[in-house]
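Reopening: Nucleoside triphosphate pyrophosphohydrolase still failing for me.
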Amino acid sequence: MGGCIMLPSRDIKGLLDIMAALRTPGSGCPWDLEQNFATIAPYTIEEAYEVADAIARNDLPDLCDELGDLLLQVVFHARMAEEQGAFSFADVVEAITRKMIRRHPHVFADKNGQLSPSDVKGAWDRIKAEEKAERAAKRPEGETTAKSLLSGIKAGQPALTRAMELQRKASSVGFDWNDPRAVLHKIREEADEIETALDRNDADELAGETGDLLFALVNLARHVGADPDQALRSTNTKFERRFGYIERTLAAQGRSLESASLEEMDSLWNEAKNEERPSSPPRAR
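Support: Ran it again with your exact input. Result attached.
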C-alpha cells in the first residue's frame, strides 16, 4: 500500500500530520512505531544540546534547523501520549500558554506601574511556588513526598551539572571533604572498585561503579574550582585537535588511519601533545 503524500508546510498541523502518519500501524515507519518515551528521551536531550551548540557558534541558519529538530521531539512525545489517551499536542500548548500568562501578570493583566527586573523575578518565583503547592494538593490522599534537602534540585539537568548541585547542597550542611586530596583518595578507591568489578565481569556492577567514579570526579572539579562540563568540553576539543593531527600526518604520507598501528598513532598523538606545550622562557643572563 502506498503512503500518503506529504508536502512541506509552515503550519504546525503539517508536522502533526507527518508524525501521525509515521506512527500509523501498517503504513507508518517501522522505526518510529517501535519507539516509546524512554527511547526517544535521549534524542530530546541531544537535540537541546544541538540548539545550544548552534547558538554558541552563532550559526543562525543551523539554529533554525536545530529548533525544528527540537520541535519534532515535542511533537513525537505528544503523539505517543495521545495514542495512550493521556494528552495531546494541543494540551501541551494550552498548558504552557496558561502557565506563561499566569507567570506574567505584569504583561497580561491590568496592573498599574512598572515592575523592575527584580520584582518580575520575585513574582515569577512566588507563582512557581503556588503552582508547585497546587500540584502537591492534587496528589492522591496518602501519597506524600518527604521533604529533602536535595528535593529542590531539578532532575532534568545534565548529569554532570546535577551531580555538582547535589554535592553543593550536601556541602551546605557539612557533608563534604575539606581537602581536594581526600577527594583524590576517593577517586583512587572508586577506580580500585572498578578493577574488582572487572574481575567479576558484571555489566550492571561495572556501570554502577563507573557512575561512582564520575561522581567523585565531579566532586574533585568542585573542590578545585573547575566547572566539570566546561572542563570536559575543553578536553573534547583537545582530543579532536590531537586526533586531527594524526589524520593529517598520515594523509600527508598517503596513508589511512586503518593502515596505521596503535603504536604509530600513539607516537603521533605524543607529537601533537608536545607541539602544544609552550616553549620555556629564555633564562635571564
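The mean pLDDT is 88. If you still see a failure, please send the error message rather than a screenshot.
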